[in-house]
Amino acid sequence: MRLLALALVAGCNIPVVHFTGGGDGGDDIDGATVDAGPPGSYVWLRSLSQVQTQTITAGASGIMTPGYLYSTANLDGTNLLTSAGNADQIIAGFAEADGANLFAVRHGNVGSEFGLLGLVASNGLELVSGVTEGDKMIDLGLGPVSGGGTPVEDGYIGTYANGVADWVQRIVGPGSDKFLGMARGPGSTIYGAGWFEQSPTFNGATLTSVGGRDIIVARFSLFGGAVDLMKQYGGTGRDEVSGGGIA
Predict the structure, then answer these.
(1) End-to-end Cα spacing for the chain
(2) Which of 25, 46, 84, 167 is the most exposed, having the fewest neighbouring CB atoms within 10 Å of its CB?
(3) pLDDT digits (tens, 9 = 90+) for 19-62
């Protein structure tokens, strides 16, 4: 059994740190809740059975982590979520003070949906990006849609409110396409960055890579997901991006 933990680390003159980690069933951290203690100790620790997460981010109402689950996930022994296919996207929120599970929402169909990155916008919306796999039906929270048509990764980025989908934009094509970076933009905008292969469709247009992979940077409206800026960068080699930020 794969267990992923969420924890806070606190201490005198040490910033509070949120992090995710992992362990196998039998590790001494599994299922543990640890009280505050000396500097650098756990304030709390939560284990999420059958869930994998990569990022964690803080917001006004607590902390949020996107991820994906296999089989049946167990959050605090009460919130049981069962995947519809191989892997399903999960978005979960926790109280910062004690780690109590505030919400946990699963999205999925018979295909695979992987939540990979997350941010919290200034208005509290959850920003999530990830990938889907395969040519089977998928569901990212807005109803079932067809997968990319080939057994490769297609990227997506969208906003959610307590795990409920507001909008989702996908980049879909015959090659591997991903959004691997997000950042809050000016006003009510967000940026997504990633890379694509061959000739995927994005925002109603077909992109064509110059080389093996080209970089894509797009700016979205936080409300509705409209794209008002899109840039492509690349040469004859492989060009990739795996992060993002606003200076």
Answers:
(1) 41
(2) 25
(3) 555 544 433 333 333 334 444 556 677 767 777 777 778 777 77
